[in-house]
Each structure stands twice: as structure tokens, then as C-alpha cells.
Amino acid sequence: MSDISLLSLSPPEQAVTLKTRLFSSYDDSSSSSLHNSALTLTDSTPDPLLLPASPRYATHGTIGLGNFTISRLGGPMRDELSNENILKIVLLHCTDIEVNTLVWKCLGYRFNVEKEFWTDAECFPKWREKYPSSDGGGFFDNPPDFVGMQRIYEADVDKPCLKANQALVRSLPEDMKQWLLPTMKPLGWNGYKYEGLTPNKTRRGQCANWLIYYREELFGYTISELKERRVMRQSAKLAEEIKKELNSDDNEKKNK
Predict the structure, then answer these.
(1) Suppose 26 and one of 34, 126, 163, 226 were both cysteines; which one would form an S-S bond, judging by CB atoms 3.0 to 4.6 Å apart?
(2) 90 C-beta neighbours (distance < 10 Å), count
């Protein structure tokens, strides 16, 4: 079964299919070999029967079985942020948990392998304040779901996902909210058609656009370096505005 047909299945059907894939990929003669191989593939002991509604899905849901480059370990890698990999998000060639995992890593969430939870220690400060993964008292929560992994769009289920996705979009500078199409068009993607557009596709597109912004503007910089860059940009913008204002005054004087 291809990755495309897998994405067309319901979450329970996906779970059964993933379980079949996972356990048919290893030598059944050695249970320890199976366990170690699973750890290598998914960076935590996977549970293919977990459904998106489970709190453990963010930490133990199966990832990395298709051709989408992703790992729970560490921060984002350049190959995870390549145009070819991001294209798979909008083409539905990866699962929802894989999309979320990549966005989480870029926001600064880090997966603790030993304790098997996501920490917010490296998150952008404002994001950590809004979506902490710890209450400070030893309780750890999962990062927000940006895609709506349950594919249930009733308000009582979907509202937190919708609000998280909207917060992600709001974090984009105004002039960087339309980077997706021009970036993906050279690879043959011409955008979604209105007919057949779904909340899942829309949110995948928004996540992909944010990932492009992250790669171009934030990737590889420390928080202090980003703050310094922002000050420099603000100074340059102010200087440009002053220059335009002086030129405008000069033109007015010449016309008098």
C-alpha cells in the first residue's frame, strides 16, 4: 500500500496498516532485534495501534516508515527542511504526526528519550509561554496539534487544534505568509484546488509555509542572535522610512 492510499484510510485503519508494516519489516525470530530496530526507526518504542486521541500518540505514534525524512531526536535537520521533504506535506505523502513532529522540533520542543516526553526548554520564549509542555510541577503535556490528527472537526474536539494553527500563522511576518506556492511551484506543485480542499490540507499548507519561513529566517540562529537580527532589521526599516520622508520633503520644496 502506498503512502497516498494510507492517508486516505481512517485512523483505526491506518493503525492496523502501520502495525502490519512495522512487524513485517523485521526478523520475527528475535524479539530483541525487533525492539532495537523499532527504536532506531522511531526514536521511542512505537505502538502501531495507538490512535491520535491517545495522549501517548505524540510520543509513541509510529513515524519514519515512509519516505518522509523525520526523527524525534534532537533539533531539526537541514534534510528534514528541504523543499522536497516539505513538498511531501502538501502532497499528503506523510502522516499528520510526522507533520506535527517536524513543526514541534522547529519551535524548540525536544523529545526526551529516557523519560519519553516532549520538553519546551528550547522553545521560543513567547511560544513556550503560550504552549508550555510542563506545568513546573512535574507534569508534562504534549505540544499542540497543528493539523487536527483525529480528523474530527466538531468544535469541542478541534478548537484547540484550530487555535494552535492560527497562532502558528500569526507568528509569520506579513510579507512571509505566501511563500509556499512560489517555493513549491518549481517542484511541480501549483497549490490546492478549491474543490476538494479540506481542513487537513489547509493546515498542512500553513504548516509547510511556516516551515519554509523557519528554514529561511530562523534555522541555525540562537535566540540572542535572532533578537539582534530583529533590532538590525528594525533599524534598517526606520532608516529607510526616514530617507523616504526626507526625499518627499525635498521634492515638495522643489515643486514650490
Answers:
(1) 34
(2) 22
CA 144/CA 146 separation, integer angstroms: 6
In tens, the pLDDT along 171-208 reads 999 888 999 999 999 999 999 999 999 999 999 999 99
With CA atoms as reference, report the closest residue to 101 among 43, 150, 156, 51: 43
**What's the CA angle centered on 217, arms 182 and 188, to 5 degrees?**
20
Amino acid (one-letter) located at 118: W
Alpha helices by DSSP H, listed for the chain, are: 3-7, 11-24, 31-42, 57-60, 83-90, 96-107, 125-130, 155-170, 180-184, 199-213, 223-255
Please classify residue 142 by burial: count the beta carbons closer than 10 Å to its beta carbon, then call 0-12 exposed, 13-18 middle and 19+ buried.
middle
Question: How far is Cα 81 from Cα 202, in angstroms, rounded to an integer?
Answer: 19
**Whose grid coordinates read 522610512?**
241
Burial class (CB in 10 A: 0-12, 13-18, 19+), 114: exposed
Q: Do the Cβ atoms of 97 and 61 come closer than 8 Å?
A: yes
How many C-beta atoms lie closer than 10 Å to residue 179's C-beta?
19
> Taking Cα atoms as reference points, which of 47, 76, 75 lies closest to residue 59?
47
Residue with cell 499542540: 144
d(CA 106, CA 221): 12
Report which secondary-structure segment, H or E, holds 110: strand 110-112
Q: How many Å apart are CA 9 and CA 22, to the nearest integer?
A: 17
19-30 per-position pLDDT tens digit: 444 444 333 333
